[in-house]
């Protein structure tokens, strides 16, 4: 392993200096600067926006910006913008959209939109004194946070609840303020964190000035103040339904498929090894749409994975059943998203993605994200219980395999024709090219 010198002040270098340092340290090709420059935007205004999104920016890492048309959500036709490097994800979404568009489309229900944050603190005092004073403390917290909350309240949001939790089983003298927030169309991270940090200052002020406290009780230590990405009260349910007979051309085939599909989803509910991969398929769709709209797919995934394990066992997030001749497929998932501020308002392609979606509200975007997840899962499970996942998956990856061999357009077309009705694998493509190139 090659050792490299520790460097101080790297962030203060300009972009060219950073690149030159990397070239020297890693003995990179002299053309590295030009290579990185080639991925920069020619529009200097937009490039400046992209560069400022992160620290130590050297270039732009491109992923395909694509669309999947024909989604019907609550009776409205939508085109979903997507950012993903996996072609089969886009194909799966488009195929699911077209299939369910002929059967009434996707439906959604917003169950809640409250997000949460926590103030974690340590206080070496008599718990009953804190409990008794808490109604008065709560008013102090709300009053002193008013400069932060008044604008959000004008938009219909704000602080919805503050709960005091005593948790000595975690740490001695450990407490939490568990706070519910409504942030309307904003994701609200900065708003929530600012409120919580103000709560910390207010709690310390209470402890140092409350006349009922003894001198040894006047030291309150704030451990941390931070939002939580676990948002079970910001939740959406999405589903599709149709008569079982509409799932295939023949009645017997339709029922056989529906029953097999239901069994596959049930396995994902009960078996953790299957559940993890099942849910990954859901996030193929959710992540692609969240990236396109500038939302934080990492936060979404973290919260939803925790929700999948809320009963003590990690489970698949979707459910399927047959009831009185009807097939149902649904998902209930927590989602915290924003449609104003942040990357959504800054990134030029995120702005375009929002325009393609009709500039939705946060509630509407919650529904679209969940629909993308359900659609992706529908296509994946459908493939698993019919043709198998590899047939369609590898067909979609044929272009990537061919590009790895750097063949001509004519050779690519010959390969596509050859593999139209054959199984695709890296080894088989290599064998074909060796024989025909």
TrEMBL record:
EC id: 1.1.1.88
GO MF entry, a single one: hydroxymethylglutaryl-CoA reductase (NADH) activity
CDD domains: HMG-CoA_reductase_classII
Keywords for the protein's UniProt record, in alphabetical order: NAD, Oxidoreductase
Matching SUPFAM superfamilies: NAD-binding domain of HMG-CoA reductase, Substrate-binding domain of HMG-CoA reductase
Protein name in UniProt: 3-hydroxy-3-methylglutaryl coenzyme A reductase
Species of the source: Sunxiuqinia elliptica
Record InterPro entries: HMG_CoA_Rdtase, HMG_CoA_Rdtase_bac-typ, HMG_CoA_Rdtase_cat_sf, HMG_CoA_Rdtase_NAD(P)-bd_sf, HMG_CoA_Rdtase_sub-bd_dom_sf
Pathway where it operates: Metabolic intermediate metabolism; (R)-mevalonate degradation; (S)-3-hydroxy-3-methylglutaryl-CoA from (R)-mevalonate: step 1/1
Family: Belongs to the HMG-CoA reductase family.
UniProt superkingdom: Bacteria
A Gene Ontology BP annotation from the UniProt entry: coenzyme A metabolic process
Keyword Ion transport (UniProt): no
Catalytic activity, as annotated: (R)-mevalonate + 2 NAD(+) + CoA = (3S)-3-hydroxy-3-methylglutaryl-CoA + 2 NADH + 2 H(+)
PANTHER family, per the entry: 3-HYDROXY-3-METHYLGLUTARYL-COENZYME A REDUCTASE (PTHR10572)
